[in-house]
Description:
It is a single chain. With about 150 residues, the chain is mainly α. The chain contains 5 helices and no strands. The protein is elongated. About 25% of the residues are buried.
Amino acid sequence: MGPADSQKSFLKTKLFWLHVSLILSGVLMKYFGPPGKLDGRFFYTIGEARDYLINLSIIERDRYFWGEIVDYWFMINYSWIFYLIIPKKRVFIPGFLDLIETTMIIIFLISGEFNSFHVLLPFVSFPKWLGAVTLFLLVAAKLLKKRADG
């Protein structure tokens, strides 16, 4: 086994464990997250964000908070997976937007106040999802091309 084979094997092992971690953190986020949570939506308005957050019960806020803490690990996982498959810095854009969205949600969950910067939530969420879906399609196309080439 040469250095190139060893490097490929190590990459496959890394990708395997990142996928396992991604799935586990996704399950935890689903468990903690209240139904219809903001960062699981492809699009929402400022009014929908405000109404949703303000109408959460104390128990829902607490659970949502812990789900969002797990979301930090989730975004690290998917960002790293994208980077290992497509080693370009731009693959971190959806993760960075997710970081901003998650942090804004956590600030609300801690403070209980919808502040002026929370109006940015929809403007961060949609590009995050658009970027993530685009990256997923690029990765799928790359893997299909690789498989077709042999």
